[in-house]
Structures are given as structure tokens and as C-alpha cells.
């Protein structure tokens, strides 16, 4: 699999994470619903996901047949769609269609729109597990690995979407931050601090399961001598940095914003939050790029 496949995978990971994570956070934090154009965001990410999924299907067909994308025929696509990865692709398209429907037909019913959009986004995001290593194992190990992959994707999507939402909130123009807007922003930041603890726990547990199955305790030394292992270590280092930024947001920067809302001296607190969330978002992009690359490589456990 070449750079095109990695690029499409990266685009799908990012787009579907936002497709699920943004409405999911808005569903849990009602205070941000009027601050962001959630309907337009959902529609844009759903359409982008549909286009990227079509590109991904063509890239998969090309990698399986060795033929250029321009020469892929209907019979090849029909064969892939009959496979588990193809069925997952169909489910993804249905999930994205549900998001697009909710974004266009239910904007005046925020609770229904957000519930359907987050559910459709979760379904679409979870189908990416069939494009990764979690779908390669058999019997009970296969189900455990696939389930851990899906839970890992959902938790990572919730974190990614939340960072996108929170960064958009704090990057609004200065004249948008009157006292009510600042309080709503603080509630969103504080609320995600509680949810984030659960998300991190799920990512850690599912990450350990995946590492056990893809690397194994007997192959830890190979992490330093193989491309797969080196990329995995880089991903772990970025994840540790994200934890550091998240801790700073929750325990230092968010309380600082709360302390300065009523005094009107909130600019420095907002600048700190903007910087921290932007750095955290940068780490997310790098992690997703590494995940897209890792998905095309042979795991360490398979090399032995």
C-alpha cells in the first residue's frame, strides 16, 4: 500500500472522528449548541466522509488487484463489497447518510439532530476497525481485538471532536466573549474535563489490549528496531504530550478562566487555552497520521 492509501486513511480517521466527536460533545454540553454552526459542520464532514470512503474503496481495490485505479471495474468492486471489509464500507455509508439527513432535516430539533448525528458518526467511525489489524485475528481473539479496536476508535473520536469544538470556541473573535459566552465556554471546558477522564481510561485499556495482540511482551525489544515499533513509540510519546496538555487545560487554564470571567481580565486565560488546545490538536493530527501509516505495516507480533 502506497502514500495514496495512507493519505486516504488519514483523511477518513480525521473526518470520521470529527463527524462523531463534535455532535457527541454538543449532546453532552448543551451550552455550546448556539456557539458553533453544528448543522453545517455535520453536513460538511458527512459529505467529506462519503467522498473519502469512495476514494478508499477504489484505493483498496487497486491495492488488492495491482491495477491502476482508473482500470478498476464493477466486478472487482462487487467482489470487495461482498467481503467483510466491503460490508463495513456499506454500513459506513449508511451511517454517514444518517448524519447528512439529520444535519439537513432536523436542525430545528437540536436534541434529535445531535443524537442521530452522533450515533451515525459512531457507526461510521467504528467501521474503520475492519480496515485495520483488528479484523485479521480469528475466533475469540478476533472478537476481542475487533471490540478493543472499535472502543479505541470511539474514545479517540470523542477526544478529537471535543478538541475541535473547544478550539473553535476559544478561537472566536474577542467581541464574541461577553460574560454569558465566557461562562458557557468555561462550562464546556470543565464538562469535558470530567468526560475526558473516562475517554483516557478507555484509550489506555484498549491500547494495552491492542499492544498485547500486535506486539506481545516477548517482542518489546523489536519496538526499537522495526519501523512499526518506532512509529508506535512515536505515537505513545505524542499521546503522553496530549495528556500533559489536557491536564494543564483541566487543572490550571480552565480554572484560571473561571477566576477572571467576572473581572473582565480574561484575555490572558483565553490565550493560554488557545495555545494549549492548538498544540493538543497538532498532536492529534500527528497521531492520526501515524495510525494511518501503522495500519499499512506488518505488526511486530506477525514478524516472528
Automatic annotation (TrEMBL):
Residues spanning the membrane: 6-29, 41-64, 76-99, 111-130, 150-171, 192-215, 227-246, 267-294
GO CC, alphabetical: plasma membrane
GO biological process, one term: copper ion transport
Localization, UniProt: Cell membrane
InterPro entries xrefs: CopC/D (IPR032694), CopD (IPR047689), Cu-R_CopD_dom (IPR008457)
Keywords of the record: Cell membrane, Membrane, Transmembrane, Transmembrane helix
Domain Copper resistance protein D: 187-294
Membrane topology: Multi-pass membrane protein
Classification via PANTHER family: INNER MEMBRANE PROTEIN YEBZ
UniProt-recorded name of the protein: Putative copper resistance protein D
Source organism of this protein record: Sphingomonas kyeonggiensis
